[in-house]
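Known limitations

Structure tokens in this collection are predictions and should be treated as such. Users comparing against experimental data should check residue numbering before alignment. To illustrate the layout, the record for FBD domain-containing protein is reproduced below. The input appears on top and the generated tokens appear beneath it.
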Amino acid sequence: MLEVHAAGCLRVSSRTLRSIGFRDSSDVKAELVIDDAPRLERLLLPYSHLNDCVTIRIIRAPKLEILGPFSPDLCELLAFQGMGPVGSANSISTVKVLAVGCYTYQLNAVLDILKWFPCLGKLYVTFGRQNLPHYDRPHPMECLQTHLKEVVLKYFNGYEQQIDFARFFVLNAKVLNKIEFHVREDHYNNEFVARQHTLLQAEDSASPDAQFEFRKTCGSIDYHVSKHIHDMSVADPFADKVDA
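Generated tokens:
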């Protein structure tokens, strides 16, 4: 499926479908239900932050590896693997790459959802373009202990709460290899980068291999995803071209 524009409820059952792109462009409540998709690898949700009337239900998708981008405080995600709703005892262990957005500035919602994905290896977070409120520090999550190796923070401006958010991964992600900061061009300079390195407390990193990369941001993650929904040759549909 290349892209679906829908209102109401769309239910999907397919033994061959590998990628779905879903976008609700109406003001009416919309729901996508993945009833049974044994070969589905990607569920891509570009521009989901533009509508707070979307519910995504995943009933059975045993090979789902790539999910997003969606805003957990706007788009309701309900996953049922087996008998009960997703949670610490019943999580989506197949998802390896996740993209989430923080557009209403509720970082708690972003961090809380990580416990659903214990085998997550790469996380994208797109910040809104304003300052952020403080958030409650969560307890350590399984993905931080054994799997999360890369974090990409888009539209990073160096606000205090954004630094604190990034530092959470520095201090808790035990196998982290890299945090990539995509910075708006009007904020990016050598002095800015040097200051962020100091504030991030790299010497206290939970992972001895953690590196920081700062780049100028390049385009919207939603635009990039919408261009690669059905292109399975693109290993990571959330990755975009940025300038070092």
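For this record: Residues 68-81+90-229 form one domain. The first strand starts at residue 4 and ends at 5. Please report discrepancies through the issue tracker.
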